[in-house]
Specification:
The protein has 133 residues and is mainly α. The protein has one domain (2-132). It contains five helices and no strands. It has helices spanning 2-6, 8-27, 45-49, 56-87, 93-132. Helix 4 runs antiparallel to helix 5.
Length: 133
């Protein structure tokens, strides 16, 4: 038990790095899935390749959603890291305050990410409605 307390920073780093290594596999799995190529009589090479099929608004919205997803994941990892620091502070007020500051900052960051996701979603839905007409 004493070695776990001594190496708590190493344990927190290992946990955070494991989360960062596994997160892209989960978040990008659908983005890397190959799209089926349909060959029909009147299609051109660009459309058959799968490039340029989507509207630029849809592509931009996908990129912004991906970036906001990574930022949300980063905020979640910081909340978990702050929780580990708080649990392992052993009554030390300085470390507990440091952990509280990390958690509060991460929660504020998560609120900013969620609100920017809502704003971006609203704007891109409006753009799609305007250009669809």
């Amino acid at each position: 038990m004493n070695t776990i307390i001594k190496n708590r920073k190493k344990i927190a780093i290992y946990i955070c790095s494991a989360i960062f290594m596994l997160a892209p596999l989960v978040t990008l799995q659908a983005a890397w899935a190959p799209s089926p190529i349909v060959f029909d009589q009147g299609s051109n090479i660009l459309r058959n390749s799968g490039l340029g099929v989507n509207d630029p608004i849809v592509v931009t919205a996908g990129i912004i959603n991906w970036i906001l997803g990574i930022l949300g994941l980063l905020a979640l990892v910081l909340i978990i890291y702050g929780g580990f620091i708080w649990m392992l502070s052993r009554g030390n007020e300085e470390e507990a305050k440091k952990a509280r500051d990390i958690i509060v900052g991460a929660v504020i960051g998560l609120l900013i990410v969620l609100s920017s996701y809502g704003i971006a979603s609203y704007v891109f839905n409006m753009l799609l409605n305007i250009t669809a007409d």
